[in-house]
Each structure stands twice: as C-alpha cells, then as structure tokens.
Amino acid sequence: MTDPNRTATQDRPKSDQLGELDEGPEQAEDPLARDLAVALTKLQRVRDRTFAQMADIVADQLDIAVFHCLLRLESEGPMRAGVLAEALYADPSSVSRQVATLVKRGLVARVPDPEDGRACVLSVTDNGQAMVEDTRRRRTASVGKIVADWPTDDRADFVRLLEKFVGDYERFRPELLAALRRRLDATAV
Q: What is the separation, in whole angstroms, between the first and last Cα of the chain?
C-alpha cells in the first residue's frame, strides 16, 4: 500500500537526493545541468560496478574506503585519526576501523604527535608509499587508455573543467547537505 504522504523525493534512491537543492519557481531546470547530472550518475554507477568487480578479482587488496584513507595520508602527510575522518567526510568510528586495517597491513604507522606526545598521528610507511605509487601508475595508465584517442586539447579542456567542477562541488557541498536536511526535516513532520 502506498503512503499518500510520501513525496517523490523520498521514493528516489538516496544518491539521487543528495544533488538536489530547494528550488523556487524562479529556478528553471537547466538542460545542460541535467545532462551533466545524468552523466555523473552513469560514471558513478560504472565506477561502483568496476570497484565491486575488482574486489571480487583481487580479494586480498584493500577495500576502496580503506585505500582512500591511505591516499589522504599520503597526499596530506601525517595527521590524527579525527582529522583524517573530517578530511574524508567520514564517521570517526569507520575511519578508526579502516586505519586499524592499514596499521595491521603495515601500510600506516601510529607515531607520537610532535605537538602533543600523549597523542599519535598516522603516517604512511614505505610499504604504504609503494602501494600508493603503484596504484597511481596503474590508474594513470588506465585513464590514459580511456582518453588515448582524444585530441590533446580535448584532454586538457576536460582536466581543466573537471578540476573546476570538483572545486565548485566541494565549495557548494555544505549548501547541498543543508538543503537535503531541510527537505528531510519538512517531510518528517
């Protein structure tokens, strides 16, 4: 039986709800923005399927969320686990479990915090660094194959525009989340 109080937004997958803002009548839908949103959704689905298939093939490799912890530590340097959780927009307890995996595998070490000897920071080990470098080489080769037939100007434009989009998305992210919270609060009443 369908609940007459449910909205169309509530019936959509959560991943589709995240990209919405409160729209007033003055905000007409931009067809290019819609096309971009559809393309990004397709990209995410393809990436999700690819990661799942890769996990099945290489069972001893790190879970993607664990690997993101390693990448962040490698790119930004040693940090406390709480700072890492904030940087990843992740729950601290989840990050704690992911870090434990990295430490157990010898990819990250807990070292005394130079600013506060009572605390520790997480630092990438030589083995962790080697894994990151190997992964970057393979990822670069894979992306290179995907865009190999693209003219150099197209590749340069795509990099420039994608970096701009990611930066703008990052800055706009708090507003997207606030709009989602408002909408969910309004439907919970």
A: 21
